User: Fold this.
Amino acid sequence: MATQVQERRPRPTGAADRALRRGAGRIEGLDGLRALAIAAVLLYHLRPESLPGGYLGVDVFFVVSGFLITTLLLRELDDRGRIDLPRFWVRRARRLLPALVAVVVVTIPAAWLAGTDLLVGIGRQALGALTFSSNWLEIAAGSSYFTATAPQLFVNFWSLAVEEQFYLLWPLLLALVVAATSTARTRARIALGAAGASALAMALLHTPGADATRVYYGTDTHAFGLMIGAALAFALSGGPLPAAARRWAGPAVLVALAGLVALMLTLRQSGPLTFRGGILLASLLTAVLVAGLLAPTGPYRWLMRLRPLEWLGQRSYGIYLWHWPVILVLAQAIPTAHDSAAHWGVRGLSLAVTLVLAAASFRWLEGPVRQHGFRHSLRRAAAALRSPLRGRRVLARAGAGAGVALVLASGAAVAVAPERSQTQAAIEAAQAEVDASAEEAEVVEVVEADRSMPTGEEITGFGDSIVVTSKDGLEHRFPGIMLDARSILQWPDGERAVRARLAEGTVRRAVFLDYGTNAGVTDEALVRRVLDSLGPDRMIVVVNLYGGSAWVPEANATLARIVAGYPNAVVADWHAAISARPELLQSDATHPGIEGAHLYASVVEKAFAELSERLTGVPVTLAGEPGDAPAVQPTGDPAEEASVSPGSEAVDAAGGETVAPPG
Assistant:
């Protein structure tokens, strides 16, 4: 099947088309731009605090793909007067499927060995990966990219699904656009109109504070980068770059590069501006960088053609596929405290394994299939298996045997995959008991300030799933404690919970608060309102955060700054305590396990003791237990004793708290 398109008037060869012809199907420098994109994504997933907007690397890929695919299709139209759709789709399959299948069949058994929690939902994930429908399958399943209930092995494949759906539909739409219009300018305007509609849909459908998975995953709401790239290809197909464009190419590229870097350094994925113009702006800046590659000369073109960048860019597809599963599997197999030396050792190992696997895939799998096709590659493999065992034939047979074993192991892993993670099961079991305890809360009256060390019957605890999973430790340490906690809660939910309990009169004289695992502290005034509502007569402990998300250091610093202004409050340094004992966390590296729950309770107890000693001057003697850790980092200034060591947040797999997800 081929799509015939009759041009309404002859079209001059554009700058992008000439670049393709000079480079035998390549535009020099695009690999360098891909390298910058994949480097941003890698840094974001290895340490999101260092590059909070590194996920924008995915949108750089979108713009590059939209530009390159449209340019190739226009070139085919110019050469042949038609688009051979089967040939186009087969080329895309050759490019995408070999590495994708390899990642799926290798990482599923590896995840099985590392821990069954990584297999939650793996059947759906594998189906979505192999059919390029991950984004819509996860939306239909109610999965959340931002508040995942389990670490998803192939969560990064959503973007591949968006691109493949574009490859499927865009050639047909492009043929219609070309047939219905006569100028490159008109076609570019149509593509820009489609991009604007997609960006507007993302902005209108996103509700600040609500989960943004639908607008982030949706092909309709996240196609504007691809269409901006297509619009650029249309615009450049109309002839040579104007003289003014060539003259201003250098400064424009510098401004665009600086702007994109600034966005990557500041645009947090959880912020409302991200979905209301932030990603769109990054895509427009990328279009300027792509156009800059078509300028005759300049330092930017030279930079993007550096051999290390070209090497990385040529393998960027495999790197993107491998890096997230590798990070998850190694993190599950080798638990470490965030930002510790061991943590960075595992992260370094993840990077090295990713690069080796991507290079091997590019050399021995992607390249041969891309060059010779599926049938020829399969015939060569079959011939190698039938030939006598010597030299490379031994390796070929060993590789084939390993491949069969991996496929069988993947099928077995999918068959035995659990429906829920162990952490999720633990939270659900504890949640029912917490709810029952909260319903039995009695009315109390706080008449005057009592600064003595509180007992369990004098403490009310508010929080999210961290408190839920710490229930056993808290009840052991504080018999009679009243807990009001639930998964996925944020500080706005905490304010509503505190006000509701105050209205009932069930808030006791000592209170601890633990919110922010899901989204940090986005409203400092809100936290102050909560503390003000509890009043100066109550003793208040605010527990800080632990993990690997970009917002956690800032959130911990904000909590310390707020609490320092309240003489009757102190910060419990959960981050420092669990950083020293990461093995006490569950497999999601966020929720405390059985011993971790007792450590958490110890942190809260020591914080109350520190606060009581500070306010009364009377020492508090606590019964030490294994796993106890300091609760407060003293600074020498009583008003500053709430200071914390900033941390960061990782995946809250079971309680719905968020992960620093792949872009």
